[in-house]
Design a protein that fits this description.
This protein is an alpha+beta fold. It has one domain: 2-Layer Sandwich (Alpha-Beta Plaits), CATH 3.30.70.1120. The chain has two helices and four strands. The protein is elongated, with a radius of gyration of 13 Å.
């Protein structure tokens, strides 16, 4: 069993309040969760207006497959014009 985990630090430019930020983050989390077979949640910087840390993970039987899934999710989130990825960390265990 191989577990792939990733954390993303995001800047949310369109956010002017915590309500705006949560709306955007929930939208991204919902879209990723429905499109890819990963567990995803906001895991840090919950009380800041324009930054967020999102974590997601997948379980598979190969390291190549885990890396592919994580890369696809990162590319999908990077394609969202509302946010910019400023840092990410991938771990495959």
């Amino acid at each position: 069993m191989i577990v792939g985990a990733c954390t993303l630090k995001l800047i949310i430019y369109e956010s002017n309040s915590l309500k705006d930020k949560r709306h955007i983050v929930r939208s991204i989390i919902g879209r990723v969760g429905s499109r890819f077979n990963v567990s995803i949640a906001e895991i840090g910087l919950n009380d800041t207006w324009q930054t967020s840390i999102i974590g997601f993970a997948c379980v598979t039987n190969g390291t190549d497959h885990a890396n592919q899934i994580l890369s696809k999710v990162i590319n999908f989130i990077d394609g969202d014009s509302r946010v910019e990825i400023i840092d990410y960390n991938i771990e495959i265990m």
